[in-house]
Design brief:
The protein is mainly α. It has two domains: about 60 residues, no CATH class; about 30 residues, no CATH class. The longest helix has 22 residues.
């Protein structure tokens, strides 16, 4: 392994350790420039950054799309059922499913 390839690997690790903060806009300008400079010379990090940006964009877009009313009603009913007090019949079934207590 040459010194150049080790240095390149270390630079990629450095980019990976800061990629989230970079994409969130939480890094100071000099660190952003370092990452951008590295990506100009590293196809793997360029592709990773592009893919993450695309994924973030798709997630943001999906979050803005309203749910159809039928889906919203089913989701609300499911949550209400989960939060409702346990029905006596369901409670009995759960107790019957438990292993017997040892004395």
């Amino acid at each position: 392994m040459t010194t150049r390839s080790r240095a390149a690997r270390d630079a990629c690790k450095d980019v990976l350790s800061r990629i989230s903060a970079y994409l969130d806009g939480d890094l100071p300008a000099p660190q952003c420039h370092d990452i951008e400079r590295h990506c100009r010379d590293c196809p793997a990090c360029t592709e990773l950054t592009r893919g993450l940006r695309e994924t973030i964009g798709l997630c943001q877009e999906a979050g803005r799309t309203p749910l159809p009313d039928a889906v919203r009603r089913r989701a609300r009913a499911s949550v209400q059922a989960l939060l409702a007090p346990t029905a006596p019949q369901t409670k009995r079934r759960r107790e019957q499913a438990r292993p017997p207590r040892r004395s």
